[in-house]
Amino acid sequence: MAKEPRVETETVTRRASVAPSTALARYTLVVVEGPDRGETFDLDPARGVVHVGQSEACAVRLSDPMVSRRHATLVIEPGGLRVKDDASRNGTFVGRLRVVEALLAGGEVLRVGDTELRVDAGESAAVPLPTATRFGRVLGASAAMRRIYPLLERIALTDVPVVIEGETGTGKEVVAESIHECGARASGPYVVFDCTAVSPSLLESHLFGHERGAFTGAVAARAGVFEQADGGTLLVDEIGDLDVGLQAKLLRAVQRGEVQRIGSSTWKKVDVRVVAATRRDLEQEIAAGRFRDDLYYRLCVARVELPPLRLRGGDVTLLATHFWAQLGGRGEIPLDFLARLEGYAWPGNVRELHNVVSRRVALGDLGGEVGTSAPASADPFAEIIAQKLPFPEARDRVVQAFTERYVAWVLAEHGGNVTKAAAASGIARRYFYILRSRSGG
Prior knowledge:
By secondary structure, the protein is α+β, with helices and mostly antiparallel strands. The protein has helices spanning 143-146, 149-156, 172-181, 203-208, 225-228, 244-256, 282-287, 293-299, 315-326, 335-342, 349-363, 380-385, 391-413, 418-425, 429-438, and strands at residues 21-33, 40-43, 49-53, 60-61, 72-77, 80-85, 92-94, 97-99, 101-104, 109-112, 115-128, 134-135, 138-139, 162-165, 190-194, 209-210, 222-223, 233-237, 258-259, 268-269, 273-278, 302-305. It is globular and about 65 Å long.
């Protein structure tokens, strides 16, 4: 399976400063209108991220039927309380202004559904932060990441199911693999099943296996990923894309620890820790009828929400320096290049950063501006030759640059669908995954 860029356990040459604490205000939400009038919610500064909605997974849980399951997200920052609407059905308002995202200072009235909450800000105080700057393969010294490490450490020591949420490219698979490697199942298998990379007609077979002759083309018995992961960890990647019809069978496998191959009349016991990852908001998927709430609550015994790179202050430099060394960049990473990296919003998160650094290492100044594709050239070979590299290195850079551009292009042509992209490329899907991994995609 294709993997997000790994963060190896190497020492980087330039580290972001690690402050032992940060000054954060303590905020209180007071319900002044709505079914929960009079309720008060104290927001813990050390928690950082708080969700507002009807779901029992929300720290600010409201009974207002006009409020979405997960309506809005609140992030406590040094500069204020950031509120972000989570694509709610009725919108999020500050006063009379509908907002997608806003930074509050205290004293405002936040309206969600038919509920109004007054935002009260207390005095700022130093909030101690964990000093760790990594967990397993996961690297990051920002306050947003350092708040997560203690949770990851506790999760790794348990055997409970986990849901990892985050935007595309935030490093969900790296976190899942680190949880496995830091836990009691580290010596067992680690299996990845990507729900978007398998044909819908073959999903059940890949998950649970099949017996010989179970269907046309089943010339031999095959174990599914649950059996392959027996004694270890199974990452179900992009679980939000799994067909609803299969979700009930997945729920049974998780609840009872047993699977039934297609074409078999017997059940097989399996000992598997399930970690699920998704770029989707599963609460919204439940509200839309595309995801089973019973499966969500069975998997969401532990939940990790990875912050986007744009909210990880200082981590761009830390990660870019690490990737530069990892990819064989010459000398130290250029300061002007770092400055441009820091000024970019990174919609593709850590994966995009890895790709940009990879392109700069391969092509130098010819790699294009940050946030843009490398410029086309009438004679790209001349550009590589002009760098006066030894033949093997020059050849490798040409191949790497072409692979990265080709993989990105063909994936874009097919809406990110790996199966279709591989077929259009005329190569096997497994080999396409290898190329995608080598290109950092």
